[in-house]
Design brief:
The chain has five helices and five strands. The protein has one domain: Rossmann fold (3-Layer(aba) Sandwich). Strands 2-1-3-4-5 form a five-stranded parallel beta sheet, with helices on both faces. With 128 residues, it is of the alpha/beta class.
Length: 128
């Protein structure tokens, strides 16, 4: 599994990286939101994890950008987890069409279970 992390906060990247250290898992990191689209196009990650705060282009804007590019046929569909600062941000996150949201602080077990559920559902949907 290939995971793309987009977060400018080192503690967020460290926490996520720590959740995906098993054999066969690759973690790619970017610290600027505007780098996500290009990295997705080049690396084709199985999972994109976006922090709500990524410098000057936050996670919601990045998720919207990816969905627009997918809709235009310029990118394959990405499975996106959006990390929120508070539960009240769920409303905005839904507009971004993320596959899942998690509220920080992060728990590695919850993150792994969420990723597994999303990727299992994604594979099942592709087969049907």
């Amino acid at each position: 599994m290939k995971v793309l992390i987009a977060a400018d906060a080192e503690w967020v990247r460290n926490t996520i990286r720590g959740a995906f250290v098993a054999t066969g898992q690759t973690v790619i990191e970017v610290v600027r939101g505007q780098d996500v689209r290009k990295t997705v196009a080049v690396e084709s990650p199985d999972l994109v994890i976006l922090d709500s705060q990524i410098g000057n282009m936050g996670g919601v804007a990045v998720a919207l950008d990816l969905r627009l590019e997918e809709g235009a046929g310029r990118l394959d569909r990405s499975t996106i987890i959006l990390l929120l600062d508070r539960e009240a941000d769920e409303f905005v996150a839904k507009r971004a069409n993320a596959d899942a949201t998690l509220v920080k602080p992060l728990d590695a077990g919850t993150l792994r279970r969420t990723a597994k559920r999303l990727l299992t559902n994604s594979v099942a949907a592709t087969r049907s």
